[in-house]
Design goal:
Elements lengths: L7 E8 L3 E4 H10 L5 H13 L4 E4 L25 H27 L8 E6 L8 H9 L6 E6 L5 H15 L5 E8 L10 H7 L4 E9 L6 E13 L7 E6 L2 E6 L3 H17 L7 E4 L4 H11 L7 H10 L6 H15 L5 E9 L3 E12 L6 H5 L2
Parallel strand pairs: 4-5, 4-6, 11-12
Antiparallel strand pairs: 1-7, 1-8, 2-3, 6-7, 8-13, 9-10, 12-13
């Protein structure tokens, strides 16, 4: 059986909806819906301006019309706010095209034929329907009907990296396997009328998007892969109530505690030292940008440079937090930049966070050209 460092992300793809919205426009929309709460409206503008987001994408054109017509953030109580049923119909209509776009990019980037896909992991926490996204993707991509399907649902922002680690374990057990991961999140379908300050944090940075990757054992011709090393998932103590995601009558209801960055700062260094097992800190850091405060907390506690957090901050700035989708946006941006700069093999750590609080942590390395013989660096990642 091959070692875990012979398993890699062979190709990646990302997709965003057609509708782009400036953060300043969303802030105006939120503030307008709070005309009877001027103190909360002023607070909203401060939060939206300071969260590190400049632009987001949405599958819902209702956000683009006149402020008085937005049903998701109504100006008047008598307006018809979309029900959970209506939001799920929109999800069913919009999720597949985005997922297909990302998946096709990943398959083409990996350079493998579709009949080689043996497993597919679909990831989403913002919508569900049956027959599910996994079945629709198999049919539209022309994959084998015998593909082993592994839906990973309602796991929050950490689920994208969780899926990558699950796929690594699948290939560890069967080196001939090729796992296609497709993450789709339509977060803007769940914007809620704002009634209190806590709701503003969740509304300030989430957007829509899709990402995909193919994981398998690299062949001699593969280039610019991300080799997957050791990783694990951990529940942080005393944090169960700090991130919740529940189904309500008018969409899913998210609560994010302002304590989350402090909780990560308190516990993350110990976990990362355990992950590294006395090795030196790596150069590359793929941090899930769950918000500006989360990236700040990781940077401060691990004493990282601005350059090391650049990829995460840039994804947050240009697209927002895309929940489970986001970590692949960060990894892909990092991989393409390393390729364009002709960088040598470089070690890294990927991390993402979700309800629990859950931290997904994984070592990886960027490799410009694959060699079947393990180097000294490869053994470090075992």
């Amino acid at each position: 059986m091959r070692s875990s460092t012979d398993i890699a992300i062979l190709g990646m793809g990302t997709a965003l909806p057609a509708h782009s919205v400036a953060q300043s426009d969303i802030a105006d929309l939120i503030a307008s819906s709070l005309q009877d709460r001027p103190d909360l409206a002023r607070f909203a503008k401060r939060v939206f301006k300071s969260c590190g987001v400049e632009r987001r994408y949405t599958c819902e054109p209702n956000y683009l019309g006149p402020l008085e017509d937005c049903r998701y953030l109504p100006l008047r109580e008598e307006m018809d706010v979309p029900s959970t049923e209506e939001r799920m119909r929109t999800y069913q209509r919009e999720a597949l095209p985005l997922g297909l776009e990302a998946a096709e990019q990943a398959l083409n980037d990996a350079g493998i034929s579709r009949e080689k896909v043996s497993h597919m992991i679909t990831v989403s926490c913002t919508g569900q329907f049956q027959p599910g996204l996994d079945i629709m993707l198999i049919r539209h991509l022309g994959l084998s009907p015998r593909v082993n399907r592994l839906p990973l649902i309602f796991q929050g922002c950490a689920a994208g990296l969780k899926a990558i680690q699950m796929a690594r374990d699948v290939v560890q057990g069967d080196p001939s396997a090729h796992v296609l991961i497709v993450c789709v999140e339509l977060c803007t379908l769940h914007f809620q009328p704002v009634k209190e300050r806590e709701a503003l944090f969740a509304a300030s940075f989430f957007g829509d998007g899709a990402s995909a990757c193919v994981i398998g054992c690299p062949e001699a011709w593969h280039q610019h892969v991300l080799k997957l090393g050791y990783g694990y998932s951990v529940l942080l103590p005393d944090s169960t109530e700090d991130m919740t995601w529940e189904v309500g009558d008018i969409g899913f209801e998210l609560y994010l505690s302002p304590r989350i960055p402090k909780l990560l700062a308190a516990h993350l260094e110990e976990e990362l030292r355990l992950l590294l097992h006395e090795d030196q800190l790596p150069e590359l850091w793929a941090i899930h940008p769950g918000g500006r405060g989360i990236v700040d907390a990781v940077q401060d506690v691990m004493r990282l440079s601005d350059e090391q957090t650049h990829y995460s901050r840039e994804v947050l700035r240009t697209a927002g937090n895309l929940s489970s989708v986001t970590i692949m946006f960060v990894l892909n941006a990092m991989r393409m930049d390393m390729k364009n700069r002709n960088e040598a093999s470089t070690e890294g750590i990927a991390m993402a966070f979700g309800p629990g609080l859950t931290a997904e942590l994984m070592r990886f390395s960027y490799v410009p050209a694959y060699s079947s013989s393990l180097s000294e660096q490869d053994h470090v990642l075992l």
